[in-house]
Amino acid sequence: MKTIEDLDVAGRRVFVRADLNVPLSGGTITDDGRIRAVAPTIAKLVERGAKVVVASHLGRPKGEPDPQFSLAPVAARLGEILGRPVAFATDTVGESAKATVAALADGEVTLLENLRFNAGETSKDDAERGAFADELAGLADLYVGDGFGAVHRKHASVFDLPARLPHAVGDLIATEVGVLKRLTEEVERPYVVVLGGSKVSDKVGVIDNLLGKADRILIGGGMVYTFLKAQGHEVGSSLLQEDQIPTVLDYLKRGEESGVEFVLPVDIAISGTFPDTRTQAPVEDFAVVGADGIPAGALGLDIGPSSCALFAEKLADAKTVFWNGPMGVFEHPAFADGTRAVTQALIDSDGFTVVGGGDSAAAVRILGFDETKFGHISTGGGASLEYLEGKTLPGLAALEG
Ligand code: ADP
Ligand code: MG
Q1: Does the pLDDT at position 265 exceed 90?
Q2: Cα separation, 201 vs 271, whole angstroms
Q3: 320-324 vs 352-356, strand pairing mode
Q4: First CA to last CA across the chain, in angstroms?
Q5: Cα(396) to centroid of ligand 1, in Å?
Q6: Cα 239-368-315 angle, rounded to 5 deg
Q7: pLDDT confidence of 11, banded at 50, 70, 90?
Q8: Which SS3 state, helix, strand or coil, does residue 175 take?
Q9: 213-230: average pLDDT
Q10: In which band, very low, low, confident or very high, does the pLDDT at 376 lie, cut at 50, 70 and 90?
């Protein structure tokens, strides 16, 4: 793979595919980690006199403009971080984008509007994606892939565009891949993996591969309930993926055979309704129950205090830790304790600790922890998991040639 240093960028339009998909609450950025993570790449290109055209997706708009997913607040924040103005194009490949890019002087930066406002970005149809990539290619002379959180997506700006322009890998992706290599090649043991979050089906797959590598797998977040159900317990109205139960049973059996220890929570924090994470209104019916005693109708929303202690103990001697997915609905203070406990256990560990996942990384910072206390905080959850699963990532493959 070529790096930025291999490109002659001075005076040329350089398209930087970044992942600026930050959490927003009513137009306010609640965690700017992903913006800060790619800023050094942009700054380096500015320094070398490039005309920098930054592009990203934000959220999941449906292939057409949708103001709630506008990147406008991100342009402002990127400008603050870079300490220089960032011109914002109000479309991605339309009149505004063309005019803004044409007006760039050497060392100036523009951010295009959300790539996913165009159906071609995420299309499954090669021709439709290709046509959009052609339009994007018209805006630049060179391509730098640095949107690590999106490299597992076969999207126009990630996969098709680098085939159309001389390209290089950005510094963020290079760092991320270096860390993941360390988790797949010579791992220092015990190697403990903590899995949580809400995208259960995305995450169950990684366990298959980890069964051959990890020593211990701790299960929290929304995945817990599929495991508990598989063990014959009632899970009320908690997140559940019935269709994954046979897979989970197979994992538990294989874990036992191969000596990989699965650690499930022993108690669960529940409520009858999903908490209001915006107003953070107190949860009137908060309760902690045994993991085998979730009442019908209740929602499991965090691991309980005994589970926090158990997880901390299982992390204490780890030499390598990979953590993806919050332990509970940490966006509400009533259900943040599990995530806080795991974060603290990673900080206390003297092993190499990696946090992966947009929400997990945001949680660490929103809960007020010092991000320098970790070995690495990855900007990509799905991307990290697919890498660890041994899959070929389209956005990395595209940067190879
Ligand atoms: P990441 O972005 O780190 O990969 P995910 O996107 O998979 O993580 O999951 C993050 C989300 O999971 C958070 O918004 C959190 O509220 C949610 N979550 C965690 N535990 C539960 C649970 N028990 N029920 C519902 N949602 C949960
Ligand atoms: Mg997420």
Answers
A1: yes
A2: 24
A3: parallel
A4: 7
A5: 26
A6: 60
A7: very high
A8: helix
A9: 96
A10: very high
Ligand 1 in contact with 133 (CB < 6 A)?
A: no
Token pair 């993941």: residue: 180
Q: Which residue matches tokens 């070398």? A: 48
| Coil/strand/helix, residue 25 | strand
pLDDT of 66: 97
Question: How far is residue 93's CA from residue 55's CA, in Å, rounded to a whole number?
Answer: 11
CA distance 210 to 192: 10
**100: its two tokens:** 């803004």
SS (H, E, C) 131-155: HHHHHHHCCCCEEEECCHHHCCCCC
Query: For a pocket test of ligand 1, which of 19, 24, 198 has the largest count of ligand atoms closer than 8 A to its C-beta?
Result: 198
Residue 150 vs residues 13, 55, 235: alpha-carbon distances, Å: 22, 12, 33
Q: Does residue 199 carry a catalytic annotation? A: yes
Which residue has the least CA distance to atom 26 on ligand 1? 198
Percent of the chain at pLDDT exceeding 70? 100
- As a whole number of angstroms, the longest Cα–Cα distance in the chain is 65
Q: Take residue 125 and report the two structure tokens written for it.
A: 């149809």
Compute the distance between CA of residue 292 and CA of residue 286 in angstroms, rounded to an integer. 17
Burial (Cβ within 10 Å: 0-12, 13-18, ≥19) of residue 267: buried
Specify the pLDDT at position 401: 72
Query: Ligand 1 pocket test: which of 239, 359, 374 has the largest number of ligand atoms within 8 Å of its C-beta?
Result: 359
Confidence of residue 74 (pLDDT cuts 50, 70, 90): very high
